[in-house]
Design goal:
- This protein is α/β, with parallel strands linked by helices and 696 residues long.
- It contains 24 helices and 30 strands.
- Among the domains are: 154 residues, Succinyl-CoA synthetase domains (Rossmann fold, 3-Layer(aba) Sandwich); 77 residues, ATP-grasp fold, A domain (Dna Ligase, domain 1), CATH 3.30.1490.20; 114 residues, ATP-grasp fold, B domain (D-amino Acid Aminotransferase, Chain A, domain 1, 2-Layer Sandwich), CATH 3.30.470.
- It is 40% helix and 22% strand.
- A seven-stranded mixed beta sheet has the order 9-8-11-10-12-13-14, with helices on both faces. Strands 20, 25, 26, 27, 28, 29 and 30 form a seven-stranded antiparallel beta sheet that branches.
- Helix 2 links the parallel strand 1 and strand 2.
- Helix 3 packs parallel to helix 4 and helix 11 runs parallel beside helix 16.
- The longest helix is centred in the middle third of the chain and has 18 residues.
């Protein structure tokens, strides 16, 4: 896929220049300097010759076919040049020129025009506003950046050309290899989803890395990323995670940054490992490309420095990995050859005077242990140690085992020979223990993703026409907020248990409802305009008699009109008092990129204060709903503590799944809150007490 980009037989540089300061000169020079073997056609209206090649006044005058055109002309003439490329039959174009959507106004219109032209001629387009593309195997360097990286097995795409140029420069200085590099620019046509699909089928791509400022189609992205990440690890930096960052993203490439929580949730669900920095991005990418998959979370540390071993141990426990418990046999074998002062338990400390052979023996012994799933090998340069010899010992030993081994060779310039040896053996090296631990965690997170069961989405028998009728009625009245009684009808349609409730329009109706339901009852103001009833004193609980009912009706109406005089008041909802052990929240907020973002957490009036909430993009499978329960800090409470009865967890799961189906069936629902869902003890169900729902 996309052979015309990465293995073109011919390339035209439209806007090639004799001026060495111009981008058109840099692109042409890179093509020639870094060994591209196909035909190269410089195009410039002035004709003549550049870098020993004949220059053609127009792409239409180039003899033969052109697979790839790199366009480096002023923005006002890009459209006409693209039109000529279409008439010439060019299959792929890279538009380096800036001045389109990222500047807004006319630039946005011009970019839409480019898309229309490309679509009309069947041209695939990278850019505009990009650095270009590189393929190290071809080899092809169609960028204006300096240098060419070594061949490798990591593909990288970036929405920032400047960042990609910096990464390229760093990779050359550190001798880091890549297979392909793509600057996406404004993503007018080809975007991150297209590249994921292309690289996911590429045997040369062992890891896909990306810097993204936004995702064009969240649902499609999750679908493709979930499939690709089954065989190829994906690591992504998503920029614009803060309000300031989101504004910068919008002005940079005209991309909607989207909800941070939705991005985090969607990437995790799709098996994408999220990096928070460029350092993390490559720490994880190297670990994935060079090391086998881990079998579990039990990690051993082998070190020649006690302090750094303890630091690594602390970090392991902090991030959720486990310090491996070495077998008795392993401990005894370590005692045989290590000095008496050495620590033979995890972390294994070979002591500061350890030579390469002592370190080799300790690492080999630990890797043989059945209780060890992976090892972090930490060694510091000492007077008695030759770091290259220890690095050799680590590399030779690690390659004999199907377990990940990450190195932490600490030090500066004096340790470079050791780092070079580790590179040769494909052992990722990290300057500090915390980085090695985070990389090991990334390997384990990938293992967790690959071990997940299939996503089988249950479909309940529901009465969706009931919900449809409610939404049509709400819209016909020009409203966006669904009222209490209307929301109850929707919940009934989807089989979500509710307490007995009656809408009363006057005190007499309220009294009749209370007598019918049976005391005690709850009473709540009913208004489509009042979303948080407790904030205005719009809820009365445990009402036990007729006088209380009448007084409560009047009081609730008085408070509503006092605090929100403009609110439409429908009456008062008289409701059965539900006794339960626990209050939880089940909700949904529709994200513009990824769709319905489900939420679950401890509920009631403290939900916003405690923020003990976890998220998933709907629809979800039953095992995912169960995962949501176990992820909140309050999960231990739901399971029952200090003799308390456990909550009916399956009733919560059932509610999450039914809400998931509802919000998937009706994309017009933009917000939904069940808070609280009162959960009874195990086997006795759960009841949706308070409801809030809004439409698009």
């Amino acid at each position: 896929m996309f052979e015309f980009f990465f293995s073109p037989q011919s390339v035209a540089v439209i806007g090639a220049s004799r001026d060495e300061e111009k981008l058109g000169h840099g692109v042409l020079k890179n093509l020639l300097q870094y060994g591209y073997k196909g035909k190269v056609y410089p195009v410039n209206p002035k004709g003549g010759e550049i870098l020993g090649l004949k220059v053609y006044p127009s792409v239409l005058e180039v003899p033969g076919l052109i697979d790839l055109a790199v366009i480096v002309v002023p923005a006002p003439v890009v459209a006409s040049v693209l039109e000529e490329c279409g008439r010439k039959g060019v299959r792929g174009v890279v538009i380096i020129t800036a001045g389109f959507r990222e500047v807004g106004g006319e630039g946005m219109k011009e970019e839409r025009r480019l898309v229309e032209i490309a679509s009309r001629y069947g041209i695939r387009m990278i850019g505009p506003n990009c650095l270009g593309i590189i393929d190290t195997l071809c080899p092809l360097n169609a960028t204006f950046a300096r240098g060419m990286p070594e061949q490798g097995d990591i593909c990288i795409m970036s929405q920032s050309g400047a960042l990609l140029a910096a990464i390229l420069d760093w990779a050359i200085s550190e001798r880091v290899g890549f297979s392909r590099l793509v600057s996406l620019g404004n993503k007018a046509d080809i975007n991150e989803i297209d590249m994921l699909e292309a690289w996911g089928d590429d045997p040369r791509s062992k890891v896909i890395a990306a810097y993204l400022e936004g995702i064009v189609d969240g649902t499609r992205f999750m679908e493709v990323a979930s499939r690709v990440s089954q065989k190829t690890p994906i690591v992504i930096i998503k920029a614009g995670t803060t309000e300031a960052g989101a504004k910068a993203v919008s002005s940079h490439t005209g991309t909607l940054a989207g909800s941070e929580k939705a991005y985090d949730t969607a990437l995790r669900q799709a098996g994408v490992v999220r990096a928070n920095s460029v350092e993390d991005l490559f720490d994880y990418a190297f670990a994935f490309s060079q090391q086998p998959l881990i079998r579990g979370r039990r990690i051993a540390i082998v070190t020649n420095g006690g302090g750094v071993g303890i630091m690594a141990s602390d970090e392991l426990e902090r991030v959720g990995l486990k310090m491996a418990s070495l077998t008795r046999e392993t401990v005894e074998r370590l005692k045989e050859r290590l000095p008496a002062a050495a620590n033979v338990y995890n972390p294994v400390d070979c002591l500061g005077d350890a030579d390469a052979e002592r370190y080799r023996y300790a690492l080999d012994t630990v890797l043989q242990d059945v209780n060890v799933d992976g090892v972090i090998a930490i060694f510091l340069s000492q007077v008695v140690m030759h770091v290259e010899d220890v690095a050799e010992a680590v590399g030779e030993t690690a390659k004999r085992y199907d377990k990940p081994v990450l190195a932490c060779l600490m030090g500066g310039e004096m340790t470079e020979p050791g780092r070079e040896v580790l590179r040769r053996y494909g052992i990722p090296n990290y300057n500090f223990p915390e980085r090695a631990v985070k990389a090991m965690l990334a390997i384990y997170k990938r293992k967790e993703f690959l071990d997940r069961p299939p996503r089988e989405i249950e479909r309940f028998e529901v009465h969706s026409p009931w919900a449809q009728e409610v939404f049509e009625q709400v819209r016909s009245e020009g409203r966006l907020t669904v009222g209490d009684a209307e929301a109850r009808r929707v919940m009934e349609a989807y089989g979500i248990p509710l307490p007995q409730s009656v809408l009363a329009r006057n005190p007499e109706e309220a009294l009749e409802a209370a007598e019918s339901i049976g005391y005690p009852v709850a009473m709540k103001i009913a208004s489509p305009d009042i979303l948080h009833k407790t904030d205005i004193g719009g809820v009365r609980l445990n009402i036990r008699g007729p006088d209380e009912v009448r007084d409560s009706f009047d009081l609730l109406n008085y408070r509503a009109l006092r605090f929100m005089p403009e609110a439409e008041i429908w009456g008062v909802l008289v409701q059965e008092m539900v006794e339960g052990c626990y209050e939880v929240l089940v909700g949904m907020s529709r994200d513009p990129q990824f769709g319905p973002l489900l939420a679950f957490g401890l509920g009631g009036i403290y939900v916003e204060a405690l923020r003990d909430v976890t998220f998933r993009i709907a629809p979800v499978a039953r095992w995912e709903a169960r995962e949501m329960l176990s992820e909140i800090r309050g999960y231990s409470l739901l399971r029952g503590v200090r003799g308390e009865s456990p909550a009916d967890l399956e009733a919560i799961v059932d509610c999450i799944l039914r809400v998931s189906q509802l919000v998937t069936d009706f994309p017009e629902i933009v917000e939904l809150d069940i808070n609280p869902l009162i959960v009874c003890e195990e086997g006795k169900g759960a009841v949706a007490v308070d409801l809030r729902m809004a439409l698009q």
